[in-house]
């Protein structure tokens, strides 16, 4: 019986063939050399410099955030260093009106989409004003439940399609998130409705401490898109050009009515999972750290841009100084924001307060005026 | 006016709202061509098109995610969860997400979603189809939980729920879908959420109930009347938030109360009603407030259903304890 099946259709061979097809897409290698000229997006000089500036700025933002956290001045923070290409080059392929449904590590994308930095700091501090998006900014607060943003992205994308908008909903999760039921439901729903969604899995190799190979028997996460019938690609997530091209292609297809795509970006987080006590030395060796540090997105992009005469130490210093200044100003503005009250929170529960909350509101007005 | 069953009244409410507001969307498993497994959406896809009334893949969390995403793009989603026992598959979308968006975003995004779903026992379903899970929903701040007991109420409450700018869980008792028929206006009308309905006035005892148990309570009240007791029956209609004013006014008049629910006794709505009464009106009470509820087991396999479910005899028994205390 088994043999007969194998003669007509060999499930194992089919799987191997599909898995082998998911080769990692790369344009700019670790040495900062274009290895795939055909796929080069040919960004303008200004665009290349802008993308580099954003990555450098964000690396500084990460360093400052970690330091502010250690001083007890920030609160919840999930470090981003190592994921700049994955986060910012994918974002760079978007348009202003596109929707972003971020995970909690995806604060940089929503900041570059328009969330004022001081609000991002308030999100970290656990103040609701950090989640009040400026009018017209199509961004959701960072999602805490791993994968929940995937089903919601399918919904936003379907809404955009129904409205006839030429926009997409992009959402981010990690390698761990790709194991969640919502991951499958999200990509499957978006596929079934041909909704303009882009699903990004930032495979940074560890879900807190759990390595990628514990998550799934699948050789790649990208191949999971095949089961949902949606185009998917495995990308070098440390290569800003490859990430940009993969996202831009996905966006073009989506706008063109061809439905959603799945992108797996192979990347690494240099820091701990969050600043809340995670110690990566418990689950990662310095060998792995060094291996990934050699692939650094900023290092390779710097080499590439320097080779083109577009970047210099002076330019980098300027960006770093600007970042430091703006971060300082943003922290000051966050500090100046009035403290959050329980009465604020009660007011935000419903359009009209029901009796129980009305009563509790009065109690807390009194408590908070003491 | 036409005579309608509850299922017809629900379809009618959906039709009114689809007509009235182009942002209203209906979706779920088998709600399109098939009109829903109970025909609640019968004919609506044909009338309003596949863009407004559509089938989804079979995944409840995905349906919840759609509702959230569609709300964010300005729609007013009315998803159906085919049976409320399947709600566990969509608990994060409901409790972790829908209920929290207004709060999470500091009153900048809201979720005008009404999740409709059948529930309730007595019709011999397989497991996970009949559970009364309103207590679970009522414990989640940010939601409203509505349970109609009549066709007239079902239509008015459903229209109010759909128009509400916060998420509403609208639970439809399976046994009431076709067992009660009454006059229902064909035009659109609303019944405010959070308002109970005094179904029958009385002076000796208040019975608080909702859903199918309203009918069992009315039956018990009639029996008690034959024995000379004047019993008030209050249909809560919205179990979260509770209509405290009506509940307390009734207890202050009758001085005795029982609370009836089909759900298991542990935690739940009835316990909450008892707590509100003791906190607010203990000096009016002449007897302890007792509950009539199902035993604290998992919902039974169908063969034991009829003994397990509370009925008017159980209500009579408990009512007499309180009346003769």
UniProtKB/TrEMBL annotation, chain B:
CDD domains, alphabetized: TPP_PYR_E1-PDHc-beta_like
The Transketolase-like pyrimidine-binding domain, residue ranges: 4-179
Pfam families: Transket_pyr (PF02779), Transketolase_C (PF02780)
Molecular functions per Gene Ontology: oxidoreductase activity
Named cofactor requirement(s): thiamine diphosphate
Entry keywords, A to Z: Oxidoreductase, Thiamine pyrophosphate
InterPro entries linked: THDP-binding, Transketo_C/PFOR_II, Transketolase-like_Pyr-bd, Transketolase_C
Annotated TM spans: none
Protein name: Alpha-ketoacid dehydrogenase subunit beta
Organism, scientific name: Lysinibacillus composti
């Amino acid at each position: 019986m088994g043999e007969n099946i194998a003669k007509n259709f060999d499930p194992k061979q089919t799987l191997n063939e599909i898995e082998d097809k998911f080769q990692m897409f790369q344009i700019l290698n670790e040495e900062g050399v274009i290895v795939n000229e055909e796929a080069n997006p040919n960004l303008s000089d200004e665009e290349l410099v802008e993308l580099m500036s954003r990555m450098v700025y964000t690396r500084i933002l990460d360093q400052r955030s970690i330091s502010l956290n250690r001083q007890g001045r920030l609160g919840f923070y999930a470090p981003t260093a190592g994921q700049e290409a994955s986060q910012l080059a994918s974002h760079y392929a978007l348009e202003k009106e596109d929707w972003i449904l971020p995970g909690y590590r995806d604060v940089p994308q929503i900041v570059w989409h328009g969330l004022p930095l001081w609000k991002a700091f308030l999100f970290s501090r656990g103040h609701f004003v950090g989640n009040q998006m400026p009018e017209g900014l199509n961004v959701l607060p960072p999602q805490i439940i791993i994968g929940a943003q995937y089903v919601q992205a399918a919904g936003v994308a379907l809404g955009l399609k129904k409205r006839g908008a030429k926009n997409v909903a992009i959402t981010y999760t990690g390698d761990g998130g790709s194991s969640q039921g919502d991951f499958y439901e999200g990509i499957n729903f978006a596929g079934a409705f041909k909704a303009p969604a882009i699903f990004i899995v930032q495979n940074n190799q560890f879900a807190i401490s759990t390595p990628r190979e514990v998550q799934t028997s699948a050789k790649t996460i990208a191949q999971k898109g095949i089961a949902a019938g949606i185009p998917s690609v495995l990308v070098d997530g440390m290569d800003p050009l490859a990430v940009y091209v993969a996202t831009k292609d996905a966006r073009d297809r989506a706008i063109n009515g061809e439905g959603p795509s799945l992108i797996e970006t192979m990347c690494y987080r240099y820091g701990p999972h969050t600043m809340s006590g995670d110690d990566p030395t418990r689950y990662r060796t310095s060998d792995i750290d060094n291996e990934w540090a050699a692939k650094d997105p900023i290092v390779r992009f710097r080499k590439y841009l320097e080779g083109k005469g577009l970047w210099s130490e002076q330019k980098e210093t300027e960006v770093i100084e600007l970042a430091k200044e703006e971060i300082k100003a943003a922290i000051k503005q966050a500090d100046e924001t009035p403290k959050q009250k329980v009465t604020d929170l009660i007011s935000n529960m419903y359009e009209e307060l029901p009796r129980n909350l009305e009563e509790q509101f009065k109690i807390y007005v009194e408590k908070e005026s003491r | 006016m036409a005579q309608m069953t509850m299922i017809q009244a629900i379809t009618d409410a959906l039709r009114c709202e689809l007509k009235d507001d182009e942002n209203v969307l209906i979706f779920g498993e088998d709600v399109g061509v098939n009109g829903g497994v109970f025909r609640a959406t019968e004919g609506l896809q044909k009338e309003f098109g596949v863009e407004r009334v559509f089938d989804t893949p079979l995944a409840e969390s995905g349906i919840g995610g759609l509702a959230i995403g569609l709300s964010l793009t300005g729609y007013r989603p009315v998803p159906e969860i085919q049976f409320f026992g399947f709600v566990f598959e969509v608990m994060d979308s409901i409790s972790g997400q829908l209920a929290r968006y207004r709060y999470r975003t500091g009153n900048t995004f809201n979720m005008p979603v009404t999740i409709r779903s059948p529930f309730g026992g007595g019709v011999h379903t397989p497991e996970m189809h009949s559970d009364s899970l309103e207590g679970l929903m009522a414990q989640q701040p940010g939601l409203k939980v509505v349970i109609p007991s009549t066709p007239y109420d079902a239509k008015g409450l459903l229209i109010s729920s759909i128009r509400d700018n916060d998420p509403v869980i609208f639970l439809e008792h399976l046994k009431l879908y076709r067992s009660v028929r009454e006059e229902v206006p064909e035009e659109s009308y609303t019944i405010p959420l959070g308002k109970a309905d005094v179904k029958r006035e009385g002076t000796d005892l208040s019975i608080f109930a909702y859903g199918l148990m309203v009918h069992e309570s009315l039956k018990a009240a009639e029996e008690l009347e034959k024995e000379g007791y004047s019993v008030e029956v209050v249909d809560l209609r919205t179990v979260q938030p509770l209509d405290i004013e009506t509940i307390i006014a009734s207890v202050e008049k009758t001085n005795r109360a029982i609370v009836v629910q089909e759900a298991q006794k542990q935690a739940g709505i009835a316990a909450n009603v008892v707590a509100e009464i003791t906190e607010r009106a203990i000096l009016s009470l002449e007897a302890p407030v007792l509950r009539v509820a199902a035993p604290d087991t998992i919902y039974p396999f169908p063969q034991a259903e009829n003994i397990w479910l509370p009925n008017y005899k159980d209500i009579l028994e408990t009512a007499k304890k309180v009346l003769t205390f």
